Amino acid sequence: MSTLTVTNHNRNVTNFTYVYPVLSRRAGGLSIGINFNINNACNWRCIYCQVPDLKLGAAPEINLDLLAKELRQFLNDVLHGDFYERMNVENEQRVIKDIAIAGNGEPTSLANFDEAVQVIAHIATENSIFPKSHFVLITNGSLIHRETVQNGLKILNDFSGEVWFKMDSATKEGRALVNNSAQMNEAVLKNLTLASNICSTKIQICLVDYQQRGFLESEREGFLNFLTEIKAKTLIQNITIYTLARPSHQPEAIDLKPMALDVMQNFALEIQKLGFDAYAVA
Ligand code: SF4
Predict the structure, then answer these.
(1) How far is CA 195 from CA 39, 97, 156, 165, in A?
(2) Structural domains in the chain plus CATH codes
(3) First-to-last CA distance in the chain?
(4) For residue 56, how far is its CA from the centre of ligand 1 (angstroms)?
């Protein structure tokens, strides 16, 4: 018998290709994950990334019929079968909190991202999943300028969905170090503006303590300056600060520690002073 716990994020627990269950402590129930990046490919390489054998690249061509079949089958098992019993899920956790497009790489790199979002929305609607459960896209936000991604966000918005937009640094050096990305603030602001004009968008900041350097003053200052600009120019209101919850699968893992909670909480207070709703989670 398998046991699904908050620490078990094994994407193979149900033997599906695209659909996987996660018991989410943060969400307080079952999160149904959708993984388009079955090749473990991403256009970034974050040093805290938990994807094993991460490669540089995009999501491969998707089999939409298989995605639909798996999601139908899984929802049927959760809603009408004995999924929770088989997985030993505690009673208070037996609720579908969200369907989250996340997975082993950047989901918006899928060539027909909008079609895949439509398939998920259609099957969730057939099963009366929304609006009781949320529809979430977890993204690094770097490809929002693509038309297919914006079309996908429009569908997400039709189902009151949310974009969780990763922003782990607001400096060139910080992004190069943490995300191995050369993206500049101008491009990030443009994509944040596009995303938040289409669909409710939240910023997710992952802070890690690299080589025991703690939270560098240059990073703190970069964030506060950039967030001031974001506040003035976008509709974004919510920011979550989090840290390493599980070991990184990247070579830098040995040099990484979770950021101290008090450092994250103090930073959240500073962000609140800019007018955002900001909080830190351990
Ligand atoms: S964006 Fe996400 S999947 Fe891509 S490297 Fe970073 S943490 Fe991993």
Answers:
(1) 26, 23, 11, 9
(2) 19-207 (3.20.20.70)
(3) 30
(4) 10
The whole-angstrom separation of Cα 162 and Cα 185 is 22
Residue 154 is predicted with a pLDDT of 98
Residue nearest to atom 5 of ligand 1 (CA): 45
Residues 123, 176: Cα–Cα separation, whole Å: 39
Position 15 pLDDT exceeds 90: no
Using CA atoms, how far apart are residues 238 and 221, in angstroms rounded to an integer? 19
Cα 4 to averaged position of ligand 1 atoms, centre (Å): 23
Does residue 9 carry a pLDDT above 60?
no
Residue in this structure with the two tokens 């996340």, named with its chain if needed = 102
Average pLDDT over residues 98-116: 97
Model confidence, pTM = 0.94
* Cβ–ligand 1 contact at 45 (below 6 Å): yes
Instruction: Determine contact, residues 62/116, Cβ cutoff 8 Å.
Output: yes
Q: Using CA atoms, how far apart are residues 139 and 107, in angstroms rounded to an integer? A: 7
Angle of CA points 39, 40, 45, to nearest 5°: 145
CA–CA gap between residue 49 and residue 244 (Å, rounded): 9
pLDDT, tens digit, 9 for 90 and up, residues 142-197: 999 999 999 999 999 999 999 999 999 999 999 999 999 999 999 999 999 999 99
